[in-house]
Design goal:
Radius of gyration: 28 Å
Structural class: alpha/beta
Largest sheet: 7 strands, parallel
Helix content: 40-55%
Number of helices: 25
Mean pLDDT: 89
Low-confidence stretches: none
Number of strands: 22
Strand order of the largest sheet: 3-4-2-5-6-1-7
CATH superfamily of the largest domain: P-loop containing nucleotide triphosphate hydrolases
Shape: globular
Number of domains: 5
CATH architecture of the largest domain: 3-Layer(aba) Sandwich
Length: 635
């Protein structure tokens, strides 16, 4: 057994690696810069965790996903592997403590969000850290022409200045050839480099796309047929609530999840779903990152995503245990037309960008030449209402301002409450004597949190209140009183979306937006959108082959289990049969509009599938119309 396999067995309990994992690990151990493209659930984290355990030193892991960082740090700790993380929402003192631990402690992993790499404090400690590997998660974020560009990723290559001979491992679930090239170039890959790319096929995952008039009925049919845990992805927060209500009304235990819920609500709903107390979670794309639930049997897209990258990653959360699972996409023509029209909203004119920027600065009461380095709570709904601006347009402009490095916008922000004593231990004795009503609260803080005299400690108000034996509301009141008396610094929990200004406010007429870059991003977006719409409408080619071709994967055979493969197997309708069904449909729908179910009932001698084929053909040939109620009538 070689060293990586010993590490795998000792800490993870597995006897062997999954496909490509060992090749990637050996490439890293051979000091190659390495790009690994592996599907969601393919075990990417093992590819940097194992080689870092083999070598001395600490692995620097760069990830934009705070939830993923926290989960991986917690999982490593349960295995006896010491790990740390630095992310937005942490104070200067907290970051400094983490960096000191990374420098002087026996830690093996330091997880860092990309924007933290640029801070003076981080750069002060960086040269002295004994880095053995730089792992870049979600590496596609480095490409301006990819689907999730983040400007902070462009500065990762600056680490080469300090660690010229340390290998970089770039990891992503999906990247076209153009994005792969971008990743290698932007990360300054050396001559010693390798690229590993898994096939994009999933043998156990059946893809299907349904062109529908009534999504509600189809969703219920799917979830009644496919037992077990599931996810329903929706475009809007309102839709998640509507879908969860629909499912509960029909006896399917469901809940909804989106970034607008409190952190406590999100955690509770996520845990209930993971532990199968809730069967179905109806959610926006805020859900799923970093969640490792292997037994998801169905992922349904109730709304069409705007890129195959998003669809593939989200659909890939089904069937990670290797058992049969289903990825189902529901769509209609109106929805696809709306997606096309949204291009103009996603890429607004220069005048619109300037108007939103100016209004935003006024809303936050920022004078000219101020704001740099300041983070503001941001309520999008209030902003939209006060300035009579479209919420979708605001979001699009915020994304552009972020890509132009004027702001950072964090919609799903959470900072737990912190407490730090401002008095010394001797003064604490006096406090307990003079104000005995606070004794139990003070004792609870001291017993629960180490170092609370030296730096702000994150506290869990629910657990602390339970430990002391009081209600949470009473605890919060006590903490505010202790703060007012000057005994502690108490920062309440913060969950509102945040806007952080990278630069000072500039005058509107001096605001420069690189329109050439915006135009290129728009063209790239339209290309992705066309591919997504084509995927929806294609009724003949294997869906796994479509996805694989889009990502330039190695050639694969038709999967045999997607809706198109099954249709091709069963499509044996003869000319005579087609003419008989066609004539019968025209006769039934000649005078009255009839639902599809009504037609099926009146033609019991023909298979439903064959009737649907004829209906689809007649509609495409404009020989019949389908009204808003989904009823069919001949022209």
């Amino acid at each position: 057994m070689n060293e990586p396999e010993k590490i795998l067995k000792k800490y993870w309990g597995y006897d062997s690696f999954r496909k490509l994992q060992l090749e990637i690990i050996n490439s890293v151990l051979a000091n190659n810069d390495t790009l690994a493209i592996m599907p969601t659930g393919g075990g990417k984290s093992m590819c940097f965790q194992v080689p870092s355990m083999v070598n001395d030193g600490i692995c620097l892991v760069i990830s934009p996903l705070i939830a993923l960082m926290k989960d991986q740090v917690a999982n490593l700790k349960t295995k006896g592997i010491p790990a740390l993380s630095i992310h937005s929402g942490m104070s200067f003192t907290e970051v400094k403590t983490v960096l000191q631990n990374a420098l002087y402690g026996n830690f093996k992993f330091l997880y860092v969000s990309p924007e933290r790499l640029e801070t003076e404090l981080f750069l002060e400690y960086l040269p002295n850290l004994k880095i053995n590997l730089i792992a870049v998660d979600e590496a596609h974020c480095i490409s301006q022409w990819g689907y999730d560009f983040r400007p902070s990723y462009l500065r990762i290559a600056d680490l080469r200045e300090y660690f010229s001979n340390v290998p970089i491992l770039a990891l992503t679930a999906s990247a076209t050839l153009e994005v792969q090239k971008d990743i290698r170039e932007k990360l300054l890959f050396r001559k010693l480099q390798k690229t590993f790319r898994q096939s994009f096929e999933r043998d156990n995952l059946s893809y299907s796309a349904f062109h529908l008039f009534s999504k509600e009925n189809k969703l219920l049919t799917i979830l009644n047929k496919v037992s077990g845990s599931g996810i329903v992805y929706c475009k809007t927060r309102r839709r998640t609530k509507e879908v969860a209500s629909l499912l509960n009304l029909n006896g399917i235990i469901a809940d909804h999840y989106h970034a607008g819920l409190t952190n406590e609500e999100r955690n509770k709903r996520q845990e209930d779903w993971i532990n199968n107390k809730t069967r179905i979670i109806a959610c926006t794309n805020a859900f799923g990152m970093g969640i490792d639930k292997p037994d998801v049997r169905a992922v349904v897209h109730y709304d069409v995503p705007d890129a195959l990258e998003n669809y593939y990653q989200e659909a890939g959360r089904a069937g990670r245990d290797g058992k049969k699972a289903y990825a189902v996409l529901l769509f209609n023509d109106a929805e696809l037309e709306t997606l096309k029209k949204q291009v103009a909203i996603k890429f607004p004119s220069n005048d619109v960008i300037k108007k939103v920027y100016s209004s935003l600065c006024d809303f936050l009461q920022m004078p000219a030449n101020s704001g740099e380095g300041v983070s503001y709570d941001f309520d999008l709904n209030t902003f939209s209402k006060n300035f009579k601006l479209d919420a979708y347009e605001i979001n699009s402009v915020l994304k552009i301002l972020e890509q132009e490095e004027l702001i950072n916008y964090s919609e799903q922000f959470f900072q737990p409450p912190t407490v730090e004593f401002t008095i010394d231990k001797y003064q604490l004795t006096d406090l307990e004597k003079s104000r005995p009503e606070y004794t139990e609260t003070v004792k609870g803080l001291l017993r629960s949190y180490d170092g609370i005299f030296d730096f702000p400690a994150f506290i869990n108000e629910n657990e602390l209140a339970k430990f002391i034996g009081i209600k949470k509301e009473e605890l919060v009141k006590m903490l505010n009183e202790l703060k007012a008396l000057g005994f502690i610094n108490y920062t309440p929990q913060k969950e509102k979306p945040q806007i952080y200004f990278v630069r000072n406010r500039v005058k509107t007429n001096e605001l420069f937006i690189n329109q050439k870059n915006i135009l290129k991003r728009k063209e790239a977006y339209e290309t992705r959108l066309r591919a997504m719409i084509s995927f929806c409408k294609n009724e003949s080619k294997c869906r796994s082959e479509i996805i694989n071709y889009y990502f330039d994967g190695p050639p694969i055979l038709p999967c045999g289990i997607c809706d198109n493969c099954l249709r091709n197997k069963n499509s044996t309708i003869s000319t005579d049969e087609f003419n008989l069904i066609s004539s019968a449909i025209k006769k039934i729908t000649q005078t009255n509009a009839v639902t599809a179910n009504g037609i099926f009932q009146q033609l019991p001698s023909f298979k439903e599938k064959k009737i649907k084929e004829v209906l689809r053909f007649l509609q495409e040939e404009n020989l019949l119309i389908i009204n808003e109620e989904g009823q069919v009538q001949s022209k």
